[in-house]
Every structure is written in structure tokens, then in C-alpha cells.
Amino acid sequence: MSTFYLTTPIYYVNARPHLGHACTTIMADAMCRYRRLRGDRVYFLTGTDEHGERIAQVAAAAGKSPQAYADEIAGAFRETWRRLGITNDDFIRTTEPRHRKVVQEVLQRLYDAGEIYFGEYGGWYCFGCERFYTEKEIVDGKCPDHQTALTFIKEKNYFFKMSKYQAWLIKHLEDNPDFIQPDRYRNEVLGFLREPLQDLSISRPTSRLEWGIPLPFDDKYVTYVWFDALLNYYSAVASGGEKTSGLWEHVEHLIGKDILKPHGVYWPTMLKAAGIPLYRHLHVHGYWSLGGSKMSKSVGNVVEAFQLTDKYGHDAFRYFLLREMNFGLDASFSEEAFVDRLNADLANDLGNLASRASTLIAAAGPVATVTAPVEAADREIATAAAEARAVIEQAMEEFAFQKALGGRSGPGSSACSAPSPTRWASSASCWSRSSRTRPGRSARRSGRVAP
Ligand code: MSP
User: Fold this and answer.
1) What pTM does this model have?
2) Residue 409 CB contacts under 8 Å (≥ 6 apart), including other chains
């Protein structure tokens, strides 16, 4: 039995759950359900990222304390995942004492080891991303992610000696080609590392921001939100209780491409400096756009798109997200594309197969031993099923859900020459060996939907 510990990003509580969050969480859920079916020991973590400037700002704008605001939105995330049938084993919040304790322990350890120093830095800062951008990353003087103006900030802070680990990280990526997947994102991280890596400011002065975990060695500063947040993956299992012991060495992260740098650069160097084993793999998916326009974190239409889950059903929504996006690449979301897939793949193909199979079973009645002769068509379908299984197993290794579900030469796709189970279930030979008639048109056409 192998062990599999998978995490999603912990989501900011400045916005209610939307399509983008649901995409990552559903992918993680599908993967964990698959690994459980395979008999693996699985641990699935998700949660919320609750500190930092932007949370403090939205809470203030709503006239609430940051904690009260975080409680409300964290509750909405929990409730959404429950409603969507997400099978997470734990839900971590960065305001919990178990997390704060680990963050302070790791900070103290790094400070004692001389990995953290006090200094001054000035640079262009995005409040949305809560990080500094280098000259090279800035697009038209704006944040490439939020397309908002950056602010020049110069202040005294504590710094983690991240630059010291640049050569080590390059070597690690070269020696472990599957550390970051798909390849394009590994190359992107190697691209960042072609520029000199700077040290990471890991604090914010309480004179500017109070909403964070106090540094254990200087209470006039709180911990930088990314340094705090990344440690959630570790703090959730660090207590080493029966449920979580032995998990850490198996940890794999699933993220969207927007947070590649913190996960591909900050996080491995933090772990290395703290003497904690590195994660096994980082799996990176692309971004959904809506009707061709970038689905930015600040755009409200992502919430609207998410409401389609209730209109068409959770399973259909889940199927669409997994099937439509080629893992690692961007995809475009529209209600029309959703309904087309629902009709073509679910109502027609799978729906017909299910209705034909159930009619066949009902017609044949219970049988103790199958006596009907095995025909060539049966053998073909059995071989195709075994081949499909191999394709699916390989696809799931790569988080290529679209392939496992029949896309891009997966089983059942038009590029695949395997016999169709639906055709087989309605074939004359199959039916002639059961006692009743073939399913009628009404059964075949069940379940189609219109937008
Ligand atoms: N709090 C940080 C993550 C800290 S992890 C230690 C954060 N939170 S977030 O709420 O902004 O969520 C970002 C994540 O949500 C993305 O990495 C991705 O998983 C998901 N998505 C948000 N919008 C998305 C799309 N438009 N498309 C696909 N996924 C998207 O960043």
C-alpha cells in the first residue's frame, strides 16, 4: 500500500469560493478518490489563508474584525466543499493555534541558525499578490496578474537568505525532472532562476499591519503572509498523531499556475533551510478564462460561473472541469461548452451506456453462472477494457484527467480505435443472448439538457 498526501492551495478569505477554487479542489478530490480506490493510504488537505494585508483591508471595509471576517468566509469554503461532496480529511486555517505554533517554531529555528537577518529593502509591491515584483516581471508598470498599479515600498524587515539556495535549487530541478510537472512549469521556474535570486522579506512591521503571526524573536513584526501560508502543508501533519504520522515524506501539492513562484522557489528553499524534507511533486494546472477574457482574481464573473453547479448538477460540473481542461494548459469556460459536453458525453455516450446496461441486466435477470458462449465482440470489449485501464492509470499518474476521461487519445476518444462499449451494449449479438427486447428510443434519449 502506498501513501499519498495531497494538498490544494489554501484559499484567501477575501473572496467567496468561485469556479477557480472549485477547479483545483475538484481535481484534488478526483485524484484522492482514485487513489483510495486503488487501495492507497490517502490524506487530502485543503483550507484557508487568513492573514495579511488584503484580508485586513476587506474586513475593515466590511466593518468587521479580521477574525470575524475570516470565520465567515472560511465557513463558506467549508460549506461549499461539503455541498460539492469533497472528501478532504482535514481543513486547516492559518489562524488556528496548531498552525501558529509550527510557524513560530520554524521561524525561531531559522533565526537561530543564522538564516534570517534584519535589513532594508525597497521595491515594487502588489497588494493583491502580497509580494514584490522584479523589474523583469512587471508588465507595463503593472502587476502581471492583477493588472493594477504597483506601489514602491521601502522599509526595514527581516529577510530569509533565499539567495543562498539558488544553485542548490537549480541542481535539484535538474536532478529531479519530475519535481515540478508538467515540464513547462519546471522550465518556468528554471527561467526565474536564471536571474539572481533575492533574499525574501519574511516580516511586516506591526506599525503598518497587525493581522499576522508575531515573529517569535521580535514582536514589532508579524510574519509575511506567504511564509506563514506555505507552512500550512507541514503544520497540518506536524503534530505526528496517529492519523498524520508518516505522511510528510509523501506530500504532493496541486496548485494553479498563478502561484508557481512561491511554491517552486520560496517553498523548497524554506524547507531546505529548515532541514525539513522537500515535497515529492508540485503539480501545476492552467487557468480558466471566461468567454475569452482572463478570469482574474478580482473579476466577479467567476462567482456567477460557479452558480452553474446548482443549475446543472454537481457531477456534471465536476465532469466538465476535469474533461475540458488539458492539465497544465489554460481553458475557456462557457455555459454553451458546458452544455454541449453534458449532452454529447454524459447524456448520449455514458447515459446511453448506463441505460442500455441496466435494461440488459433487468432483461437477463439474475444468473448464477454465465453459460452463454463468449463471442469475438465480447473478447474485443474485454481487451479494450484492460487497455483503457492501463491508459487511465498512466494518465492519472500525470494528473491528466482529460486523458483518463477519454480526451487526447484516451479510452473512448475518437482518436482511439478501441471498440465502443455503448455500441457493444446495443449490438445484436449481445442482445440475442438475453431474453428480452433491446432498449427503446426513450431510454436512449434520456437526460439531455438545454441551456
Ligand atoms: N492564498 C494563496 C495560496 C496560498 S497556498 C500556500 C492564494 N489563494 S487564492 O484564493 O487566490 O487561490 C489561488 C488558487 O485558486 C490558484 O492557484 C488556483 O488553484 C485557484 N484558481 C483561482 N482562479 C483560478 C482560475 N481562473 N482558473 C483556475 N484556477 C484558479 O493564491
Assistant:
1) 0.90
2) 403, 415, 416
